[in-house]
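Lab notebook, bench 4. The sequencing result for the construct came back, and we need a structural model before the next group meeting so we can plan mutations. Quick request posted to the team channel:

Model the 3D structure of this chain.
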Amino acid sequence: MTTLMSAPVAALLERLFSEAENVQTPALAEFAALPVAERERMLNSKTEYRAVYARLKDVAIPVSRETGTLLYMLARSSQARVIVEFGTSFGISTLHLAAALRDNGGGRLITTEFEPSKAQRARDNLAAGGLLDLVEIREGDALETLRTGLPEQIDMLLLDGAKGLYFDVLRLLEDRLRPGALIIADNADYCPEYVAQIRNPDGGYLSLPFPGEVELSMKR
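Done. Here's the predicted structure in C-alpha cell form:
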C-alpha cells in the first residue's frame, strides 16, 4: 500500500475533500454570484488577489480528487525529492505531494501561503497525516517567501495560488528547475502571460494543457 492510500492519509483526504465539496459560506456565495467577466478579472489581477483570497480564507478551494492523484503519480514516477508549491490553502495538494515524497524515500516540500489562518490549518492537517516533517510552510507573499533559501535544484513545481502571479513565480524559480523538472499549473488559462511563456516553442518548455483544469509542462 502507498502512503496516499493508507491510514491516516487516505481517511484524512476523504474528509477534507468532502468538507470542501459541501462548504457554503456567504463570501463564497457572494464571489460565485459575480458576473463571470468580473470574477475572471479579479483572478487575473496581480494586485487584487490578496483581497479575493482573504475573503475566501475559510474556503479550501482545493485541487480536484483527480488532480490530487495526478500530483502524487507525477511526483512518484519522477522520483522527485525537492518540490515547491505556490498556494498551500488547507494543504490538500500538499498532502498528496508529501505522501509521494514519503514513498520516494524522503525529500523536501516547500510550500507558501499568504493567509495565516490557512497556513495553520494546513500545518494541522499535515501533522494529522504524519507528513509535517517533510514540509516547510512559508507564510507571506510568494514573490518574497520564495526569493531566498531555496535548494539549488527543484524537481517539481505546483502553481495553485493567485493565478495572476504564475508567470512571476515561474520566472523567480526557473533557474533552479532542473532539466526534466515538471511544472503543474492549476487553471493556468487565468494567466495568459504564463501560458504564452510555457507554450512558446522557444521558451524552454514542453507543455500539454488538460481541458478545464491543469497545464502540465516540463523544463527542457
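The two ends are 33 Å apart (CA to CA).
Will bring this to the meeting.
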